[in-house]
Specification:
The complex is a heterodimer of chains A (511) and B (284). With 511 residues, chain A is an alpha+beta fold. Helix content of chain A is 32%, strand content 24%. The chains are: A alpha+beta (511), B mainly alpha (284). Chain B: The chain crosses the membrane at residues 12-37, 85-110, 131-161, 181-208, 253-275.
Chain lengths: 511, 284
């Protein structure tokens, strides 16, 4: 019976993989007793598929970057408390406005014995900066002018101007062995200094990690870490309840309560750093150059009501900015657009829009929490003020192609977060130079530039205050809310929940 | 085995056919007359009414007889209007598929020779591709919309008509009235459509009923996968898909549309069987 239900529940829109998952879940639930994992194995459910093992190509924090963090070592890492701590780096400090100096821990070697020293760090960063590598992370190093080896344990990163968030970005950069890279493909193999080594990688299905006995920077705490790709939320819930999974994320809120009550497993939520917004393509008619129209749409949507009813009060309404209070650069002076349909209608009139106004709302599926529901509610509320939003649901993968290809529709539902929790990265998503900005505003860009031009935190805050206020007023998005980040754990572990997407075995403690 | 089944059927046969017809008539009546019942708006969200428990009071339709769904919409109203969408798509797809299939079958059977070979190889090609896969590919390429959905579903169903009609035509075209029409110089098209067509329509009707049940279920599958009806409009498959995240907590959100789908598919199938038994002399 359980098998049948989870099979039904397992099939997902637009995804063939889900069929496999359903089959897997059915089979594995049947054999759950037999395969009941020993206390030393940690089984984590990833909500979407791992695309590559190559840390230079990794971009999605919840999957690729997190996997890389188990296999390789970064200079610095971000703990569950949000603070940076040194991994390969012993200490680091800025040198004036145009360089950062990193002191490395001595004696770190790859499994084959070659050292992970300043030379290797330089090689890795230069490789990412080289356009031929086609690294997706190259843009982070655009402000970097040179990497200099001072001594085997000291490396200096010179920048073209102040680059205050460089250490934050480096928390997502992992180091490969130059020697090993000559003969191997990092997309499907791994050879690093991280706490775990790769035992098995089945693309789109699972990833099994074994402890790295030679690890000196971070020690493995489990005999085996198994990461399974389970894209369907209800399948993750079933897995947690069956004791099949130890850690899973993005569970429906209704199920969080149910899991808690069941007594068989544990669940909870933390405020996340991801803000849900309805992107408006301000380069396309009718939203282009029509601030009043965009403001009207903000007045038309009942954020409070949505958080209250849909999220059971577990989210927080965005304060007219895409950042949550966890970000550096959060502007606490801004207040959300109140829900005021009358004001919205009046603004629509002033904007010279003839109602009913027909507009497209793209809703990518299988990526954001309750996307389909949020999309339908937004469309319903826009309808009330005379804006007829036609919903176009599509698979996230297909949608991202148009989004990244500068061809987003008039409106699209989207969740945005920046792993370094810094205004620079987050707000740059709306800088005109960014291909996915769909927003071109001089004063906003100026403020961003001012924020990047200094390492003085007070001056940076001031600049981001201007930028967020400008963005609030220009409203290139309908500000919604920061979504809650839900998770479930088995009885045998505790997890240090963090609002970001990082999934790390080192955050898990055995009971 | 088959004989045993036949026995069961003759025992229950008369009744199951009537049950099917009555159910089908009821479903069609409810769905067609939906606007007269004063049902609540099936697409209007009401966040305060999320997961309202069912009152089972079908006399006062404003009191959520089957409860509210995850966006506070009346489930009963959504099932009824979703049925309109599902049945309309099914009927249009079966109709379109039937017209194409019958024409192909007529020409293949009448002209024989290379026309027949070409058309029947086309049918074979079509039959060799899994229908769901074909439907998914076409919709993924063209984008989900109501027209595309109907076209795709029709595309998956024309072959059955073509095959059966061709077989019938091969037999009918040798009959005396066709031969005599030919002898007095009646044109080919006139022979095909005026003399042969009426004589091959009986099996077409049977296939159509069976296809209808299949297409409704296929549409549900497509909508379940997000490639069919776009929100906020309901269809049964779409409702099943939307409810699956709440299976553990509020199963009724997907159970009731599932029941509606089940009852309709059963009714259509039973009626189809009944019709076939009545019309097919070999089974009488």
């Amino acid at each position: 019976m359980v098998t049948t239900i989870s099979k039904l529940a397992g099939a997902a829109p637009g995804s063939w993989r889900s069929l496999t998952v359903a089959a897997w879940l059915g089979a594995s639930l049947a054999g759950a007793l037999a395969s009941s994992a020993s206390a030393e194995t940690l089984t984590i459910a990833l909500s979407s598929t791992v695309n590559t093992l190559d840390p230079t190509q990794a971009q999605v924090v919840g999957t690729d970057v997190s996997v890389a963090a188990h296999l390789y070592s970064p200079l610095v890492a971000r703990g569950p408390d949000g603070k940076l701590y040194g991994v390969l780096a012993e200490s680091w400090q800025p040198e004036g406005d145009a360089a950062w100096l990193f002191n490395l821990k001595p004696g770190v070697t790859f499994p084959g014995g070659e050292p992970l020293d300043a030379e290797a760090v330089k090689w890795n960063i230069d490789r990412i900066r080289n356009p031929e590598t086609k690294s997706r992370n190259r843009a982070w190093f655009d402000p970097v002018s040179e990497v200099e080896v001072v001594s085997p344990t000291q490396v200096r990163i010179k920048t073209k101007g102040p680059y205050p968030t460089l250490p934050d970005q480096l928390s997502m950069i992992f180091f490969l062995s130059p020697e090993w890279m000559k003969t191997h493909n990092p997309a499907t193999e791994a050879y690093g200094t991280g706490p775990y080594t790769l035992k098995q990688f089945v693309a789109g299905d699972r990833l099994i990690l074994a402890p790295n006995d030679k690890a000196v920077l971070e020690k493995p705490t489990f005999d085996e870490v198994s990461m399974r790709v389970v894209p369907e939320a209800s399948a993750r819930v079933a897995g947690i309840l069956a004791g099949e999974l130890d850690l899973a994320f993005d569970l429906p809120l209704e199920d969080v309560e149910r899991i808690k009550k069941s007594g068989r497993a544990d669940a909870g939520w933390v405020p996340s750093s991801r803000s849900m917004v309805v992107r408006m393509n301000t380069l396309k008619a009718p939203l282009a150059g029509n601030t009043k129209l965009r403001q009207a749409l903000n007045y038309a949507v009942d954020k409070e009501g949505m958080v209250e009813a849909l999220l059971g009060g577990l989210g927080t309404v965005s304060q007219c900015q895409i950042m949550t209070p966890a970000y550096f650069g959060f502007n606490k002076d801004l207040k959300p657009y109140p829900y005021d349909p009358a004001k919205a209608k009046q603004l629509l009139k002033e904007a010279g829009v003839t109602t009913p106004l027909k507009i497209d709302l793209e809703v990518p599926l299988n990526r954001y929490f309750m996307a389909s529901e949020i999309g339908q509610i937004v469309a319903g509320q826009l309808q009330d003020v005379g804006v007829e939003a036609t919903i176009k649901e599509m698979d996230f993968g297909a949608w991202v192609k148009t989004y990244a290809g500068r061809d987003m529709g008039q409106m699209a539902l989207l969740g945005q977060a920046w792993p370094t929790l810094d205004a620079d990265g987050m707000l740059s998503l709306y800088a005109a130079a960014n291909p996915t900005a769909y927003f071109d505003d001089k004063p906003f860009d100026e403020a961003l530039k001012a924020g990047r031009g200094t390492t003085d935190p007070a001056k940076r805050l001031e600049a981001y205050k201007t930028a967020t206020a400008r963005m609030c007023e220009e409203a290139p998005v309908i500000f919604l809310f920061a979504q809650p980040f839900t998770y479930g754990t088995s009885k045998k572990i505790t997890w240090k929940a963090r609002g970001g997407d990082w999934v790390r075995a080192t955050d898990v403690v055995k009971k | 085995m088959i004989a045993a089944l036949r026995k069961v059927r003759t025992f229950a046969g008369g009744h199951s056919g009537w049950i099917g017809l009555v159910l089908l008539a009821a479903v069609i009546l409810i769905v067609v007359l939906a606007p007269l019942f004063g049902l609540p708006d099936p697409v209007r969200n009401n966040l305060r009414g999320r997961f309202v428990p069912p009152s089972f009071n079908f006399l006062d339709l404003t009191r959520y007889p089957l409860g509210g769904d995850h966006l506070g919409r009346d489930l009963f109203s959504r099932i009824v209007y979703g049925g309109r969408v599902s049945l309309a798509i099914g009927a249009l797809a079966v109709g379109l598929g039937g017209v194409i299939g019958v024409i192909v079958g007529l020409f293949a059977g009448f002209y024989k020779g290379w026309v027949d070979r070409v058309l029947m190889r086309l049918v074979d090609v079509q039959l060799s591709i899994p229908l769901m896969l074909l439907a998914l590919l076409v919709v993924a390429a063209l984008g989900p919309s109501l027209q595309n959905l109907i076209i795709v579903l029709a595309l998956t169903s024309w072959v059955r008509y073509a095959r059966v009609v061709r077989g019938q035509v091969l037999a009918v075209r040798e009959r005396e009235f066709v031969q005599s029409a030919y002898a007095i110089g009646v044109g080919n098209l006139r022979i095909i459509f005026v003399h042969i067509l009426p004589n091959v329509l009986t099996p077409v009707l049977v296939i159509a009923t069976l296809e209808l049940a299949r297409v409704i279920i296929l549409e549900a599958g497509m909508s379940f996968l997000g490639l069919g009806v776009q929100p906020p409009w309901p269809s049964w498959g779409r409702m099943l898909a939307e409810g699956r995240n709440y299976m553990g907590t509020y199963p009724e959100v997907s159970v009731y549309p599932g029941l509606a789908l089940f009852i309709t598919a059963l009714a259509v199938n039973l009626s189809g069987d009944w019709l076939r038994d009545r019309l097919d002399p070999k089974l009488r």
